[in-house]
């Protein structure tokens, strides 16, 4: 399975907790940015970018999933979204020179019969920029999944971290998306916002599940270096213990409401798991376009620089590093990713068949050893994280790969 991720690094304002690569006040660069992304997409095979290896041009890339994330992809507006998607479907052949934009259709020209036809095409949307025209354009282009940056349905909590939408806008945007014909809709929620209580979090959960959303991504707020929140932490941030309690209550609420806790931060009604991210957690291949975007292709990992201006000037020359993992390193990485899948878990026979016993025996020994601490639910050769240890999962996973 292969996925394509496109990073849209624009935001109206920077939220106080955010350490994603996104820039405020740069919307005037969006049209230029879309052309740059299409140039990067047209720059494959990899050898043309100084990366050893062979990859089909993007149009022969047999994609199964597309994910437009950010930043704020809904800031693209209908016209730029249409230009981007129609351009990707008609990506310029690698023989065209750099800087030539003749492969970019104008005003939707070229859209006929080439809309997205993938297993899953997700578009991240922020409530304040979810206009009827934008959602309708996304629908017409073939997007079949939306992910809303809701975060909370308490206005006080939203304002406390600098979000620019209100709870009412978020609910109205989701209803509009449903009216436009989207059923596969996810919302992001944050646990641990300033002054958050179970009462307010419960209200957000009830409202979102009441809207019939089949997927929720729930993240615990963390103070990331360099963010406003870390520089000036408010004194009403819930304590670690309170955050853990909110997390447990959220998990119980969603499971009781019929959701499956299928990944550390993700809940879905059966059949609505995010395919793009499942591919990532299963160690699949993906290509990332745009500044800060990471890729895993052809046995290599590579990532673009976090530099929008450099990218606009030279979108095909931004690879920050290329890493070729040894089979042993790949096996360890895949084990760690698969253990994030709380229902599916890690099947050690499959891991060994893929990477050979020489590269997986240490991992299996460590899993066995850690079993005595009650960290796993084991069924045959499949290991799943015991739910009581989800909040300390990062340190557990590190032990699996490095002893
Ligand atoms: S909207 Fe999202 S990407 Fe933009 S600053 Fe806020 S959290 Fe970060």
Describe the structure concisely for a colleague.
The chain has 403 residues and is of the alpha/beta class. The chain is built from 14 helices and 17 strands. The chain has 2 domains: 280 residues, tm_1862 like domain (pyruvate-formate lyase- activating enzyme); 76 residues, no CATH class.
Description:
About 6% of the residues have low confidence. It contains 14 helices and 17 strands. It folds into 2 domains: 280 residues, Alpha-Beta Horseshoe (pyruvate-formate lyase- activating enzyme), CATH 3.80.30.20; 76 residues, no CATH class. Helix 11 packs antiparallel against helix 12 and helix 11 runs parallel beside helix 13. The chain is of the alpha/beta class and 403 residues long. The chain has a 9-stranded mixed β-sheet with strand order 9-10-8-7-6-5-4-1-11, with helices on both faces. Strands 12-13-14 form a 3-stranded antiparallel β-sheet, with no helix packed on it. Helix content is 37%, strand content 20%. Bound molecules: iron/sulfur cluster. Iron/sulfur cluster binds next to loops.
């Amino acid at each position: 399975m292969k996925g394509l991720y496109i990073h849209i690094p624009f935001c109206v304002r920077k939220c106080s907790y955010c350490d994603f690569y996104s820039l405020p006040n740069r919307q005037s660069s969006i049209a230029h940015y879309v052309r740059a992304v299409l140039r990067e997409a047209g720059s494959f095979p990899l050898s043309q970018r100084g990366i050893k290896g062979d990859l089909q041009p993007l149009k022969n890339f047999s994609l199964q999933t597309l994910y437009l994330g950010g930043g704020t992809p809904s800031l693209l507006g209908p016209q730029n979204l249409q230009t981007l998607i129609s351009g990707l479907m008609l990506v310029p052949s690698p023989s065209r020179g750099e800087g030539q934009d003749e492969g970019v259709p104008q005003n939707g020209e070229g859209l006929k019969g080439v809309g997205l036809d993938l297993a899953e095409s997700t578009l991240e949307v922020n409530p304040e920029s979810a206009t009827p025209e934008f959602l309708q354009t996304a629908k017409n282009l073939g997007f079949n999944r939306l992910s809303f940056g809701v975060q909370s349905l308490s206005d006080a909590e939203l304002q406390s971290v600098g979000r620019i939408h209100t709870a009412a806008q978020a609910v109205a945007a989701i209803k509009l998306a449903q009216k436009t014909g989207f059923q596969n809709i996810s919302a992001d929620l944050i646990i641990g916002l300033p002054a958050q209580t179970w009462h307010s979090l419960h209200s957000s959960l009830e409202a979102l599940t009441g809207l019939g959303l089949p997927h929720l991504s729930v993240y615990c707020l963390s103070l990331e270096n360099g963010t406003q929140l870390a520089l000036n932490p408010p004194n009403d941030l819930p304590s670690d213990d309170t955050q853990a309690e909110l997390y447990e209550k959220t998990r119980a609420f969603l499971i009781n409401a019929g959701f499956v806790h299928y990944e550390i931060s993700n809940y879905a009604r059966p059949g609505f798991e995010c395919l793009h991210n499942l591919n990532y957690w299963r160690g699949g291949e993906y290509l990332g376009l745009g500044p800060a975007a990471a890729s895993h292709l052809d046995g290599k990992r590579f990532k673009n620089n976090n530099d929008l201006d450099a990218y606009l000037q030279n979108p095909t020359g931004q690879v920050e590093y290329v890493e070729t993992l040894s089979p042993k390193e790949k096996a360890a990485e895949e084990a760690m990713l698969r253990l994030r899948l709380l229902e599916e878990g890690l099947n050690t026979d499959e891991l060994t068949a893929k990477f050979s016993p020489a590269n997986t025996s240490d991992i299996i020994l460590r899993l066995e050893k850690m079993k005595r601490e009650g960290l796993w639910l084991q069924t045959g050769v499949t290991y799943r994280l015991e739910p009581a240890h989800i909040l300390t999962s990062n340190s557990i996973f590190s032990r699996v790969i490095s002893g």
